[in-house]
Amino acid sequence: MPRSRGVRCGHVPDWLSSAGFILVPTKTANQTLLLVIACCVVGYIMPTLYLTRKMRFRQERIVRSLPDVMDLLWLCVEAGLGFDAASYGSRKRWKTRNPDIAAELLLVNRKVNAGVTREEALRARTPNRCRGAAHLCST
């Protein structure tokens, strides 16, 4: 079986502890042990903090662009397009401005094309804190 290249998530504390040995000179065994524990804790916590921050910023970008996307969807549907065609056209227009909302629209389109009802596809993309407003999908 070929070995994977790079650092896997399970080996981050090992990698950090070995980097700590190289970068920080220690004089006693207690300092070495403290350095290893600190590097392991940092290696365990940092990926979670990084992903949480990236997720929060992505959600904020989506929420900021949602009124404009909804307006464009409304205009397309009022002009006579079906909802699927309107969401596809909106996705194409928003691909360069906000790729996050374009990816969400693409996922909804793919689920609808796979046979999931439109209401279920839209509800699946709704965060748990917004479930109260999800009844708008059915109207």
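The above is record 1. Record 2 follows with the same two-line structure.
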Amino acid sequence: MTHKLIPFDVEHLYLMDLRDRDKLMDWDLVKTIRNAENIGVTYVIDDKPIASGGVIPMWEGVGTSWMACSKDYKNYAVSVGRYMLDTISSAFDIFDLRRIQATCDEKDEESIKFHEWAGYEKEGILKRYGIDGSNHIMFAKVKV
């Protein structure tokens, strides 16, 4: 099995059998990801995309991290998590950020666990924030 990290391309999202929650992705955000200055990677096994993620600068000093996973990612969760954490951490220096934030559905236990493991701090609930009207949790990592 060949594991590798490659630069993100929005087409990778179409090649994955995405988790149900990731299928709700805001397609305007996908266009932003495609066109924005960002750091994004895709974790690939045997040329099959397993997960994509990265950071998009929002304004000076602040970025938003994002991640979309295939249903197969659980088999590689530790590797995916480490690669995504490295990518997120490097974005602080690449974009001179003081804060990287992320949101996830309050019912998405896998995403919540990832953000807690990755050192994000829970800041609060964004009511009816999701594209489907779901509540989301705002997480942030702040450079000290």
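The first strand starts at residue 3 and ends at 7.
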